[in-house]
Expansin-like EG45 domain-containing protein (Morus notabilis), 141 residues
Amino acid sequence: MGKNRHVLIQVLLNTLMISQIFRTSKGDVGSAAQYSPPYLPTNCYGAESSQFPTSNLFAAAGEGIWDNGASCGRQYQVRCISAARPGTCVPDMTILIKIVDYAGTLVSSPSSAGTTMILSQTAFGAIANSTAASINIEFQQ
Ligand SMILES: *[C@@H]1O[C@H](CO)[C@@H](O)[C@H](O)[C@H]1NC(C)=O
């Protein structure tokens, strides 16, 4: 009896560890809002207009990933995984964004507060229906 329970616990722990490994390798889960121009100046690079990638795929870091400014210039792969309204996500679409700003000091207000990151209009529209205020994302640096 006691031994069986021990084995069961061991199996559960192993399953948890394995799913944790898969989770890390696939990135983290968070949320994203969007913001519109004006995008300048940014907290990371000021009024420098060459800071934006030519793709216009960029974002502002929310509290959780801002890292006291160390996130400036970091690149993340971002994918939309779900949203309040079904059908909002563009299926199987992953984009690469660059962090250029901080959510707390944006010039224009984000479509939703407290998200992991705030995507540029172009970035948001590439992975989701642009009428949505916020989406759930999977992201990986
Ligand atoms: C985007 O969402 C709006 C309403 O939320 C809907 O009317 C529109 O058809 C959607 N667009 C696409 C391309 O799915």
